[in-house]
Amino acid sequence: MSRVHSRPIAFAALGPIAIGGILAVRADQLAPLFAVPAIVFGVVAATAPALYIATAATGAAPPVATVVRALVTALGAFGIALVGLVLPAAFLSLSSLSITTTVVVTSAALAGAGLLALRRLAGELGARSLGAAVVFGVWSLTTLGIAGRLWADFAWEVIS
Amino acid sequence: MIAATELATPATSAALAVIDQLLRDRDGMIARIRAGTQLVAIMRTMVATIALCGAMIGAGLGSYRGGVQIGYAAIKLPLVLLGTAALSAPALSAIGASLGRRARLGVDLAMVMASLAYGALLLAACTPLVLLARALSLPYHHTILAVVGMFAVAGIASLRMVVHALATEAAPGWRTAVVGLCVVFAVVGGQLAWALRPYLVRPRAQDLAFVRALEGSLFDAVMGTFASARGRYAPDVNANDEGWR
C-alpha cells in the first residue's frame, strides 16, 4: 500500500478510536475503544464489494483501482471529520451529567462524519449514469442502516 | 491634537492598525489572513480584542446587579467566547478537509478568531446600551431581551464575515463546512455559556456564585423542560429559579 493510502487509513482508525474513547471514559468500559473502529471497518469491508459489483453491473463502474482509491479517500475523510469533532464532542460529553448526552453527541458526530464521507465518496466516484447514482443511493442507505443499527445496539448495551 | 497611535508603542500601534482594518476593511483582513502572513501577530491581536471586548460587555452585564458580579461576568464572558472558538475552529478545518478543501488549521483559526473579534467589538459598542438599561431601571426581562438582541446582531455579523471569507475562497464543500461550524459553534457555545452562567443577575439577588454547580448540560435542561411540558415533572428540574441567564 502506498503512502498516499496509509494516511487516510490512519485517520480513519484514529477518529473512531477517539470517539469511542469519549464513550469509554463516560461508561468506564474499554469496549467502545475497539467497537467503534470495528463497526466502521467491518461494515465498509462487508458492503464495499457490493458497491463495485452493482455499479459494474450497470456498466458504469470505474476501474477497481479507482473504486479502492475512492473508498480509502472517503474513509480518510470520515476519520478527519471525526478528529475535528472530537474536541467539541468530548467537551459536551464531559460537561454533562447524563451518559445519554454522551451517546447522543457521539452518535451525532459519527452520523455527521458518515454523511460527509458518503458525499466525498460520491464525488470521488463521479456521477457516471442514472443507474450508478441509484446503486450508490441504495448502497449508502444500506451501509448507513447496518452501521446505525450496530451502533445503536452497542450504545444501548453500554448505557443499560 | 496627538493621535492615540502616536503615543502607543510600535506593537500597540500595529495591533490598533489590525483592529482598524477589521472594522473598516474586512475584505483586506480576510485576504491578509488567507495569505498567511503575520498570522501569529493577527491571532494575538484578535485574542486580546475578544478578551478585552468580552470583559467590557461582561462588566456591563454584571453592572445590572453590581458589586462582585461585575468582575465575575467580566472574566466569564471572554472565557466563553475564546473557549468556544478554540473548541469549534478545528471542526471547520476538518469538515472542509473531509470534502477536499485544503486543510489550514492556523488560517481557519485566525479567520474564526477575526470574525469573533469583529462580533466582540460590536458587542463592546453595545455596552452603553446595557448601562442605559440599568440607569433607567429597565425591568429584568426587558433587559434580557435587549441583551439577546445585541448578541444576535453581533453573532450574525460574525457569521457573515466567516461565510464571506469561505465563499470568496470557493473551495469544495465550503457551504457544508460553514453549516458544520455553525452547528458545532451553537452547541458548544450554548453549553459553555450554560456551564458558566449566570451573567445578568437580578439587582436584589443575594447569594452570588462565580459559577453554579454542574446541574447537567443544556441538552439535559432542554429535555427536562420538554418532559415538564408534557406533564412529567422531575423533582430537580428547574429547582434553581434563576434560569439560564
Give helix and strand order of chain B, one letter per element, not per position. Answer: HHHHHHHHH
Question: What kind of oligomer do you see?
Answer: heterodimer
* Total of domains of chain B: 1
Question: What class do helices, strands and sheet pairing of chain A give?
Answer: mainly alpha
- Identify the most extensive interface between protein chains: A-B, 26 and 30 residues
Write down the overall mean pLDDT of chain B. Answer: 84
Question: What are the segments of chain A in which pLDDT stays under 50 over at least 5 consecutive residues?
Answer: none
Portion in strands of chain B: under 5%
Please estimate the helix content of chain A: over 70%
Q: How much beta of chain A, percentage-wise?
A: under 5%
Features:
heterodimer; A: 160 residues; mainly alpha; B: 245 residues; 0% strand
Give a written overview of the molecule:
Chain A has 160 residues and is mainly alpha-helical. Chain A has one domain (6-159). Helices cover 88% and strands 0% of the residues of chain A. Chain A is elongated, with a radius of gyration of 16 Å. The model of chain B is unreliable at 237-245 (pLDDT under 50). Chain B has one domain. Chain B is globular, with a radius of gyration of 20 Å. Chains A and B meet through helix 3 and helix 4 of A and helix 5 and helix 8 of B.
